[in-house]
Write a structure and sequence with these properties.
globular; endopeptidase fold (from Nostoc punctiforme)
Length: 144
């Protein structure tokens, strides 16, 4: 099933250091790069905007890029493994992650985290209330 392939591909990036606009497993990646690389790894159309800021990207910009690439927006915030989670974070930036059967995989710079193992790398963890509160939309990869 393609959803499981998406999750497995995302998990293959766990531990990759966070680096803004990077796209290389084991070397550096950001949250947008993770979506792009995972899509490419499983043969799906990729979400790959370039020239985006580290902060200040609007929800409209991110969702517009997803829609233009063929991602399909779910009508609710219910999600399944392999879905893309879009979160409107404090301080005016938008973050994306990939849902798994146990939570989510995302490239996180570690801002606001007090847990050392969560800082500056691709991680997987359960989706705590603080993440659910900022979840604003859920998308399916095209062809998934």
């Amino acid at each position: 099933m393609i959803a499981q392939q998406i999750v497995e591909a995302a998990r293959a990036y766990i531990g990759t250091p966070f680096h803004h606009q990077a796209r290389k497993k084991g070397v550096g990646i950001d949250c947008v790069g993770l979506l792009e690389c995972v899509g490419r790894d499983v043969g799906l159309p990729t979400f790959g905007p370039k020239n985006y800021g580290r902060r200040g990207n609007t929800l409209e910009f991110v969702e517009g890029c997803l829609q233009a690439t063929g991602f399909i927006k779910r009508e609710s915030l219910d999600f399944e493994p392999g879905d893309v989670l879009v979160m409107a974070m404090p301080m005016r930036f938008v973050h994306v992650a990939i849902a798994t059967d146990t939570g989510m995989v995302h490239a996180w710079n570690g801002a606001g985290s007090t847990r050392r193992k969560m800082r500056g790398r691709v991680v997987e963890h359960h989706i705590a209330d603080r993440w659910r509160r900022v979840l604003v939309s859920v998308w399916k990869y095209p062809g998934a």
